Amino acid sequence: MPTNPYPTRYLDTIGEANSTIDLMFLKYGSSKINQHSVYPDWCLTSDHAPLSIVIPIVDEIISTSKLSIQQKSEQKNAFLEEVTSSFKNFNTSNITNKEDLEFMVNKLNSLVDQAWNKNAKRSRITKHSKKWWSEECNKAFTDYRTLRSLNDWKTFKKVIKNTKRAFFNSKIWKVADKSHSPWELMN
Length: 187
Description:
Largest sheet: 2 strands, antiparallel
Oligomer: single chain
Strand content: 5-15%
Helix content: 40-55%
Number of domains: 3
């Protein structure tokens, strides 16, 4: 329902009544998004009055950094080693009821979190962040930045090309092997 019930279309034809034919689809039953306003003074040369609504937008926190561990890195090996040894040394013989089980699961969760926070590296998320980027790419890029030689640039581009190819080929093989259908690659 409009907050001010005015017609939304004004006819130039004498004897014809103005009408309400303009539509605005809103959330039914919502007190915040179910009220619109009609502005007959704003129509200027048009025969339609503009409609407006105020939509509340909730503040949202968007993370600009993340913790991650590079594949095939020393940090990944250290993380796996810590988690494995924590699981091996964990005493589960005294689990006798649901509360004990929940306590143990929460404790295991905190051990994994501690190992993750200890070994993960905080990195900024940017529009240039790439899942395929590796330590080899970092090294080639650092080598290029140090001397700025043409050979280092060519080496860097070659490393990038090979890394991308290996990354995307593994993704393609995973999809093709999982579904046994090449059409899944199109989704």
